[in-house]
Amino acid sequence: MVLTSSDEQAEKSRRLREAFFLETVKLQRPILIEKLPINNFRLGLIQAIFPDARFIHIYRNGLEVARSIAQLGEKGQWFGSNRYKWDQLVQLALCKEETAALPRLCANYYDQGLLEWRLSTEAAVDFLCGLPDSRYLEISYADFVDNPLTVITAVLLFLGLKIQPAVAKFVTDTVKRKTITLDGNPLSWSQKAIGGEILNLSLEDGKGVELTKRYKERSCFLRASL
User: Fold this and answer.
1) What does the alpha-carbon distance between residue 43 and residue 5 come to, in Å, rounded to a whole number?
2) Both 83 and 165 in a single domain?
């Protein structure tokens, strides 16, 4: 599940870069965008293969993500054959002192989804903290559904593209919130522990301030306090 720069292989990277380039030629589009949530755990590898890549991180309220994962988990559609993905997540949690005890607190799919959200989001923001601001854009899902045209315009600007009328119309007509928010739901002590500080940050009103910058500032403050 986790791949880092140490997993990069020169010949395979060359072939992958070539395949991606040929895709842009075939489609006659200058930029290729790939969306795959598992890549939160593979950003180091992607950076090694595509050193000029830019990153767009869409983060969401951790409680809402946990709810979605729980719904899929109940249908057997999330953690893979024989719960392979969950076993991988457990091994990842055990690698860090601050998360090593958390798998034992997970009593149901909701808790498991919350832990996956935390590990995935922390992996993303830890990586983004090491990049210059020009290399990444971060937006909240809440901002996206509340102000879709503004957010999409910012995304296209980040990519050096202009918004087209057809795109503006599609975004305005299509992007709507389909589920209720869960910001105010009371949490058990175990769920607070599973979600950690980054869950609190995801629930705050960022007022335009990115999650990564808040996470970085909070981490620096906590280290200074110690």
Assistant:
1) 8
2) yes
CA atoms within 13 A on the CB side of 117: 31
Determine the 3-state secondary structure of 55 from DSSP. Answer: strand
Q: Among residues 7, 9, 89, which one has the least CA distance to residue 43?
A: 7
Count of domains for the chain:
2
Can you give the three-state secondary structure of 61-110, one letter per residue? Answer: CHHHHHHHHHHHHHCCCCCCHHHHHHHHHHHHHHCCCCCCCHHHHCCCHH
Q: Do 126 and 176 reside in the same domain of the chain?
A: yes
**Over the stretch 127-182, which tens digit does the pLDDT of each residue have?**
999 999 999 999 988 899 999 999 999 999 999 999 999 999 999 999 988 877 77
What does residue 23 show for φ and ψ, rounded to 5 degrees? -65, -40
Q: How far apart are CA 37 and CA 154, in angstroms?
A: 21
- Chain CA centroid to CA 61, Å: 11
Residues 21 and 65 in one domain: no
This prediction has a pTM of 0.89
Are both 98 and 116 inside the same structural domain? yes
Which structural domain range is residue 201 located in?
59-225
